[in-house]
Amino acid sequence: MSQQVETAIFAGGCFWCMVQPFDEQPGIISVRSGYTGGHVPNPTYEQVCSHTTGHTEAVKITFDPTIISYADLVEIYWHQTDPTDAMGQFQDRGDNYRPVIFVNSDEQRKIATASRQRLAESGQFSEPIVTQIEDAKPFYEAEEYHQDFYKKNPARFEAEEGLRNQFKKEHWEK
């Protein structure tokens, strides 16, 4: 029996904080931190942080759609972000932290757009939903020390997660 494989790419602030929520789901094959959406091939972390490459930090999720759907991944994504903040996420500020769903098919665009519309109509947020939905661009994996950060540096990860967790409690866990 062969495994089906698809990919999803989400940007929602620091990629360190975007890995764990997906990594722990059934059907996830891998979650890799990296950079996408810019104009410089093979950027480094330092280049992306200089705000000159156009890239945003993102995660590329490889998953088995027979176990977890793309729609499920989009729902998990919303709960990791502030969809009303176009210029960063929580303590992470700047265009390299902007929230974007990068789609690689018409079907993904349809699912992400419908999900964003439902969220906008839900009344959950008093501000408009500003998360962009864009065509997938080349994805460049981040340096190895950024991969699986939550496992390699649990204390630092917990410190980084503080504001995100507070936001989740205020907006998602009502």
From TrEMBL:
Pfam families: PMSR. Residues 7-157 form the Peptide methionine sulphoxide reductase MsrA domain. GO terms for molecular function: L-methionine:thioredoxin-disulfide S-oxidoreductase activity; peptide-methionine (S)-S-oxide reductase activity. Coiled coil: none annotated. Its EC number is 1.8.4.11. InterPro entries: Met_Sox_Rdtase_MsrA_dom, Met_Sox_Rdtase_MsrA_sf. Keywords: Oxidoreductase. It catalyses: [thioredoxin]-disulfide + L-methionine + H2O = L-methionine (S)-S-oxide + [thioredoxin]-dithiol; L-methionyl-[protein] + [thioredoxin]-disulfide + H2O = L-methionyl-(S)-S-oxide-[protein] + [thioredoxin]-dithiol. It is an enzyme of class 1 (oxidoreductase). The active site is at C14. Has an important function as a repair enzyme for proteins that have been inactivated by oxidation. Catalyzes the reversible oxidation-reduction of methionine sulfoxide in proteins to methionine. Belongs to the MsrA Met sulfoxide reductase family. This is Peptide methionine sulfoxide reductase MsrA. It comes from Ligilactobacillus agilis DSM 20509.
